[in-house]
TrEMBL record:
Its EC number is 1.14.19.17. It comes from Hordeum vulgare subsp. vulgare (Domesticated barley). It is found in: Endoplasmic reticulum membrane; Membrane. It catalyses: an N-acylsphinganine + 2 Fe(II)-[cytochrome b5] + O2 + 2 H(+) = an N-acylsphing-4-enine + 2 Fe(III)-[cytochrome b5] + 2 H2O. It comes from the Eukaryota. Belongs to the fatty acid desaturase type 1 family. DEGS subfamily. GO terms for biological process: ceramide biosynthetic process. GO terms for cellular component: endoplasmic reticulum membrane. Residues 15-53 form the Sphingolipid delta4-desaturase N-terminal domain. This is Sphingolipid delta(4)-desaturase DES1-like.
Amino acid sequence: MGATRADAGDKEEGVMATDFFWSYTDEPHASRRREILAKHPQIKELFGPDPLAFIKIAVVVSLQLWTATLLRDAGWSKILPVAYFFGSFLNHNLFLAIHELSHNLAFTTPSLNRWLGIFANLPIGVPMSVTFQKYHLEHHRFQGVDGIDMDIPSQTEAHVVKNAVSKSVWVVLQLFFYALRPLFLKPKPPGLWEFTNLTIQLALDAAMVYLFGWKSLAYLILSTFLGGGMHPMAGHFISEHYVFSPEQETYSYYGPLNLMTWHVGYHNEHHDFPRIPGAKLHKVKEIAPEYYNSLKSYRSWSQVIYMYVMDQTVGPFSRMKRKAPKKDS
């Protein structure tokens, strides 16, 4: 891979790294995609939208909004556990549905995917679907590129988060960092779609408060941020690209939570073939096992969170970076 680190001996010495892993080669997925397609061209038959995407999203949106209305008069001792043990799974499912839609994997028409993303956004409580797509597609195209890939923690995060306590706080709040980091480091001017996303979301939030009260809206917001923190499903934020093994920068997860997360755990497969919907990614591994069986992977997202917090050599610096390509003069 050609990756180096200024403090490469830190892992052996048991101290926190003070720099990212730096790669001097291109990200691995484009070249592997070409190689796999040359050997297994039938994989192209998997490309295209998931015909069940709309139905799956509609069911989860309806169930979560209905649950919020049921909790309008509930006490916090009931709202909090329901939000963590139930609502968080639904809202995280919708977050990953939006991830799926950012790749236009529900409809062939991009605008229909955006409208469905705005609909899937409703129980999340805060507008994010349109903005997410802008930054996420850059993460795929420029994986690890310094100053472009906003999936990578900032220098400030990496210098502040230094031990198990601060890492635990960071994990609890990681959805805030994930959402706000690009807005501070690489803001993009909003357009008509962002305005539409914002307007529809605020209208839904206002309607929930007007018709059912603040507790219904609070349940939705809690479901979002509890599900994005110290939560089994949120382990994918760490498992996907945090470097626990310097020779690999993307990791897959092959555990049962894939059934609730649009199979985002098949992350090497997803980056290799972002035009294949999550429901079919397992077929990529079945068709071309020689490319994936040798890669390190996970079976538990909860274990990944535990490893991240407790391993004193791992932290926000545990990401692969590469320099931006030089522009022609």
